[in-house]
Amino acid sequence: MIILYQDNHVLAAVKPAGIPTQGENNSFEALVKAHSQKTFLYPVHRLDTPVSGIVLFATSSKALSRLNESLRNNLFTKTYLALVQGKPTPHSNTLTHSLFHDEFQHKAILSKHPKAKQCQLCYETITSYHNSSLLKINLITGRYHQIRAQLSAINHPVLGDAKYNSHQPFPQGIALHHSSLSFPHPTLKNIITLSAPLPDYFKGASPP
Predict the structure, then answer these.
(1) DSSP string covering 4-35
(2) pTM of this prediction?
(3) Regions in the chain scoring below 50 on pLDDT
């Protein structure tokens, strides 16, 4: 269990790929609660089951209310790292799409549906390999499956993400990792910045 930060109001830990953020049994929430022995523990945001990286929990009701308000006011900064198929052109860009959460397929799709929501992210290529690239991604909005859907829309899906048209395997989950998080502390009001390095198995999945 990797705990990045902990005090009386918040706890941040690194979720492995392959387990859900929330749920009664065998979830990351349940594991962290057992490890920390907190009576109140609630995730402020969630990561998809196959995604690894930082998850922030509120450990008091006051913190949960204030962190949710900060999240609604776009005061969180989230950065992800992703291995994607191919080499995106241009090297860096801002992507804007309208996405609709298709609950039947459990995925986000490009759509002109009246309930579709605008999604934006910025990406930058860090390293290019023979048939893949490592991207740094900063979220401007935070929508369901946003990164996965938007990268697939430009024909550079996340490795291992068969749901979004990836044809390249990945050893654990999908090659998407929540690597950095900044947020205003709910009581101290200062900005907390946390980072979680890429798991080692990312390196073996991206040969020169």
Answers:
(1) EEE-SSEEEEEEPTTS-SS-SSS-HHHHHHHH
(2) 0.92
(3) none
